[in-house]
Description:
Layout: E1 2-3, H1 8-13, H2 15-18, E2 22-23, E3 48-49, E4 56-57, E5 65-69, H3 70-75, E6 91-95, E7 106-110, E8 113-115, E9 126-130, E10 133-135, E11 148-155, E12 169-175, E13 185-193, E14 197-209, E15 213-224, E16 228-230, E17 236-237, E18 240-254, E19 257-270, E20 276-279, H4 285-293, H5 295-302, E21 321-322, E22 329-346, E23 349-367, E24 376-397, E25 402-423, H6 427-431, E26 440-460, E27 465-485, E28 498-507, E29 510-518, E30 521-532, E31 535-536, E32 547-548, E33 551-564, E34 569-581, E35 584-590, E36 596-602, E37 604-620, E38 623-639, E39 658-669, E40 673-684, E41 687-688, E42 697-698, E43 701-712, E44 718-725, E45 733-738, E46 743-748, E47 753-761
Parallel strand pairs: 1-2, 9-12, 16-21
Antiparallel strand pairs: 3-4, 5-11, 6-7, 7-8, 9-10, 11-12, 13-14, 13-47, 14-15, 15-18, 16-17, 18-19, 19-22, 20-46, 22-23, 23-24, 24-25, 25-26, 26-27, 27-28, 27-29, 29-30, 30-33, 31-32, 33-34, 34-37, 35-36, 37-38, 38-39, 39-40, 40-43, 41-42, 43-44, 44-47, 45-46
Amino acid sequence: xxxxxxxNRTMKAKAALLSSLSVSAxxxxxxxxxxxxxxxxxxxxxxxxxxxxxxESLQDVPISISALSGDNxxxxxxxxxxxxxxxxxxxxxxxxxxxxxxxxxxxxxIRGVGTGDYAYPTDPGIxxxxxxxxxxxxxxxxxxxxxxxxxxxxxxxxxxxxxxNTIGGAINVVTTEAKTSGEAEGMMLGRLGxxxxxxxVTQINTPLIEDRLGFKASVGYFSSDGFGQSLYxxxxxxxxxxxxxxxxxxxxxxxxxxxxxxxxxxRQNNHGSVAQYKVDNGGSGFTDRFNAIAAPVQNAExxxxxxxxxxxxxxxxxxxxxxxxxxLRDDFIVxxxxxxxxxxxxxxxxxxxxxxxxxxxxxxxVDGDNSPYRISSTDERISDQQFSQELQASGEIAxxxxxxVAGVYYFDESGESEKFSEFLNGVYEITGLASDARDxxxxxxxxxxxxxxxxxxxxGLSDALTLVLGARVNHDKKDxxxxxxxxxxxxxxxxxxxxxxxxxxxxxxxxGLNWKVSPDTLLYTSYATGFKSGGFGNPTATMAAPIYDPxxxxxxxxxxxxxxxxGLVTANLAGFLSKxxxxxxxxxxxxxxxxxxxxxxNAGTARLYGFEFDGVIRPADGLRFNLGVGYTHNEFTDxxxxxxxxxxxxxxxxxxxxxxxxxxxxxxxTGIGQFMLRSDLSYRSDQFLTIADTGSLQEGYALVSARASxxxxxxxxLEIGIEGTNLADEYYLVYEQAxxxxxxxxxPGDPRTIAATARVRF
Length: 762
């Protein structure tokens, strides 16, 4: 039996039980003794999660969840958080569907609900939490896998216990905990792969004062030349240069009081993501004007042949190449810290405080036309800070018949962005006509405050039946200051600096009924709600930022979680029906001064329904087969007045009808050591990548990954391995959209990657 969650308090309270368990402290391959089963392939695995703000067995949580331990992720060759979608049905988690975000921002959809728009300060539709702390911005959200104990993917609205912007679900990342007793543990990992991949990760976890103070630290450096390239200047794209540092102290002040202090720092210096374009309807009036006026001048300036024009000659669809010449950059610094104080005088009562601060600084430069010309480009800097405070009380009353959690939450965010955008640059410089001055400079200042109170009661109606009642009240207030100017006209044309304010109050209840049919079988049904905060759309030089209202989601879910044959078979099935109101749709439309504007507005209502199945069979020692299947149907049922381009037949983006994730793992011992072989397949059926854009259809595709490792009997602390993702080298897109200029812009997913690894534990 293997436990995926441990705390020093739990270990002390259950020492007699744990003496019979194989315990692992999990990170990127973990710090456990090599003899422990890898990735949870032993029978009777007990996966402990905190999806309901308390420690519970995964099989006892009445929510559709996929949970992956650090070893699970390592054995699947996952090095970045976006890889989790390959192993979780009905989950799409990838780099954002807009190349203008560089490559480190994430787009997330669960059961078809979410968003891929990173534009500051748009909120995500999938909440990302690290050690219980909400990450407000998607930029920098594609975390490298280092010092990770486990990742929990919660499907469906989590508005009661998690709050705002978890309308589609939540991704809960838990890092390792410092140990206060036992021996010091450590790990060193090296990875070398194609595209000059070179990663190094080190971890240490040690008691400083026995039974009182523990310390852990990890450093990870991830580097790669990248699979994309500019044919114009040879610059490598989709490269990676990322440093991640994490550290933590656990102080057990008394048997009842602990303080858990954790901090992290990440720095990235990349060249951004490759993007291609292809001609859409043969061109546009904008490109015709550029080719007639500016192209001859820029041909001489950039060394292009006389007569060259912007058009199909620079289109490279279906490749990982581009003709982009503008500076490309995807840099960020993300840092933060949290202090969790826990007072637990008995099993009946626990009081917890989570105080956190985070800081984000990023710069993203992109080439919007992907050609040697200076037609369209952006250079954006964002600085953002957030502070949060949560107080939780939990425990049991009425002789253990009622379990409860209640709390209050405060969130404060402030930030600003500066974005310089070029459009048809060079035309105005020749004509001098004000109508050709289309470059813009946008300044934005953003402030948000959120207050919430929440509670959930699990009431035991009998030994087998439990009634779940929960609710959350959330109040958001946002202030948005913006100014847009046209620098080519000496900043004389502008929207006067303006501040808009808006606030919203949301109520998100939850009701459920759980029936423990037997110790190994749970039936449950629930009604859950969630919301995504309202906000402000993008302004232009002649148009103020529009205000849009929150989204709301109501979901009915019913499921069964069961184990059979003494844990050799696990099968979990959940079905859902959701109504999604006031959907915030994102479309690109012509702007009032030329160019194009990315607008967000409430558009209507959609209905989604489907199911997820997760199953595991362990037919023999060391052998494990797993299967995940997801199905999602989506359709609009109502559209608001004035919605353009969307009809009742339009399908939501990034919602494949089917997602299938089969895999197997086999480990065996020999006289020379232990071998392990694992392989997984991830299939996604047809899906549209952009709303109201039939040309953005991505046909179904399958990605194959595999990993093999060997632990020598003479060196039991050493493991060497080889791993590969997208082994069939499938070409697929994560973004495609008509973006004006008579072209379509697309962004490919990762090609085949292969790497060798060596890991030493001590």
